[in-house]
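Hi U.,

Before I forget, here's the chain from the pilot set. I'm dumping it here mostly so it's searchable later in email.
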Amino acid sequence: MFRKVSLLRNVLAPSRSLYSETALGVDNYIIGREKVKQSFTAQNEDKFREKMLEFSADKPGNMVFTEDLKNMAHLVNKTPEDMVLIEKMLKKYNSQNKELRFGLFIFGPVIMRMFYHLNEVDAALRLFKDPNMEGFFDQLVSFQLLLDMLYENKRYDEVLEVFDFIKAKQIQGGRYPKHSVVLAFAACYKLNTPKSFEYCTQLWKNLADVGHMPMRKAATFAAGLALEQNAPQISLEILSTVKDQGYVSVRNLKLITYAQLDRPDNAIPILRNSINVDEPVFKKRTFIKKAIEELRKSIVKNAEKDLEADFNKIEKTLIQNGQINEDTIEHLLCTEIASTALNGQKRNRSVIAASFNEGNNNTSRNFNKSRNFNQRTQRMGLNDMY
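Structure:
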């Protein structure tokens, strides 16, 4: 049988969140907070809160306008009073007759960024599940923000619960938003239980059935969990789907996988190619010490003297080149994603904090027709807040 190798967890603590604030657009939200704060004096801010408390009350004629909610979403502090107020405003705004709303500002992402910034995960989850808020958070980036918040707070079971809810929605014509998929596999890896492994393998099969190719990060989390659950054969199959086999996480996972499979001869070419590859010094292909040690154990176990001699020569060169380090697989897998393809795109500044260009389908279809109207009617200065 395969040997249980517990070397994926220890020592170096990975990032607490999987996606950086830049990748999630939270950095732009923080800039928006500062600009809104500067436009209010302390006295005016208190009066504004009083007015919003009055306008959000369930009385005939009371309304919360888009500008009101925009401002409060950026003024809100992590206090019980502010949390109650923003929730009342959100529910009031969402319950108002849709015909009375002329703006196309999509609030889901900006509100999720607000909760993310304040780390108010319970409030975010409660509103996301609230039937009265149906459709409010139906944007891909809102899903990603909520899942990352739950992941950051180590609420991995709830990551999977929310992911199942997202699958059922099929927003933008798909059941499996790629970044949500990554976070689901990350949660499975963190749980590291037979149940989470079953969920992981079933999800992988479901993705394959619909022709969805998960991102490399998702594949490496799934492969890492397979190794933790003593299933290197599954790890190898998953890793074979990754297009670029040169990534550091893939290389190291494959070394450990081959070691667990007692097939060290398949791992030697990976090491040799990392020495021969023509890359700049700062792009040296590195390996973690634990992976090298596991490979050595497998070679010794199989008593292959020629292979051992070859391995020793390669290891010596790797050491001389500084290509072996003390990192762990968990550290490699959980390294924070600094940016996504979305961050590199030129985004319309008037909706960057709200829709992140990932609003619901109806809004997307109507956006170009209403663009000039929005630009004329938005309050001066709000375009540049986000």
